[in-house]
Design brief:
The structure holds two protein chains of two kinds. Chain A is mainly α. Chain A is built from nine helices and no strands. By secondary structure, chain B is mostly helical. In chain B, helix 1 runs parallel beside helix 3. Classes of the chains: A mainly alpha, B mainly alpha. Chains A and B meet through helix 1, helix 2, helix 3, helix 6 and helix 9 of A and helix 1, helix 3 and helix 4 of B.
Chain lengths: ~190, ~80
């Protein structure tokens, strides 16, 4: 039996690797979308961003090192694309004093009457729309970290790599970002109460 | 008393996020738990924060539209 020429063997192996890569990347698309939906400003933007991410990923699959975190690799592409789209133009405004203490939201929710009052169910006073809108109003730099860590389940280390910022910055933005989110949520409680 | 540096509840509030993130040292974790055992005021707030995290996560997790999934599959580079 004649052996396949070395070129053909190499091409066949490469095709196999590429197919495997594409399948693995597609299997992560739900998780990629979950993050994209909230780092982008709308569903439409998220849709475009995810498609662009996959176009780029499929094109540059050779630069992915098998065995490393593919989900983080895809999200790195996505966040870079999002920044390229002019996100950097809107620098985060200084938010000193914007967030109150950590318990501000709990205090607002429990001081208004009506609805469940035990601490595990008091959150139910917030609607899904309130939460989606409040998250969208958190400044980008803080929101990206919340979305990656609290919603996307990335470690601090992965979030630092994806966003290309030091791990200490991930932690401080996460801490402040959660407070800002709670402050935004408290606004909805006040609006609904009035 | 609240907000004062010596206030154990203010200190417990500072430990709340790292406690829920499991990033406290063993010693700090012990300290937080010891305070939570004794203080209902803080315990309620920790419980609330834990529920809030789960609630927010559930509320904002939208399934990817099926149409988008199909579009992504169509982006695969065909074999020659």
């Amino acid at each position: 039996m004649a052996e396949a020429p070395p070129d053909a063997t190499r091409l066949a192996a490469e095709a196999r690797d590429r197919i495997r890569f594409e399948e693995e990347a597609l299997a992560l698309s739900d998780q990629v979308y979950r993050v994209a939906r909230h780092v982008a400003n709308s569903r439409e933007e998220a849709d475009d961003l995810v498609q662009e991410t996959y176009v780029r990923a499929f094109r540059s699959w050779r630069s992915y090192q098998p065995g490393t975190n593919l989900r983080a690799w895809l999200l790195r592409i996505l966040t870079n694309l999002n920044i390229d789209r002019g996100r950097r133009a809107q620098r985060t405004p200084p938010t000193q004093g914007l967030e109150a203490n950590d318990y501000y939201l709990y205090d607002r929710l429990t001081e208004s009457d009506g609805g469940p009052s035990d601490e595990e169910r008091v959150v139910e006073r917030l609607s899904q729309d309130d939460i989606v809108e409040a998250l969208a109003s958190v400044p980008h730099d803080f929101r990206d970290v919340i979305v990656l860590v609290d919603i996307g389940d990335f470690s601090y280390q992965d979030a630092a790599q994806i966003l290309d910022i030091p791990i200490g910055t991930v932690m401080s933005r996460l801490h402040r970002g959660r407070r800002i989110l709670k402050r935004e949520l408290a606004e909805y409680v006040q609006e609904e109460a009035s | 008393m609240m907000g004062h540096n010596d206030d154990p509840c203010a200190h417990c509030e500072e430990m709340m996020q790292p406690y829920l993130d499991h990033t406290l040292s063993d010693e700090e974790m012990h300290e937080a738990e010891h305070h939570l055992d004794e203080c209902e005021w803080c315990r309620k707030r920790y419980r609330f924060e834990q529920s809030l995290r789960v609630y927010v996560r559930t509320a904002v997790s939208e399934p990817m539209p099926a149409e988008l999934k199909q579009k992504l599959a169509a982006l695969r580079i065909p074999l020659n």
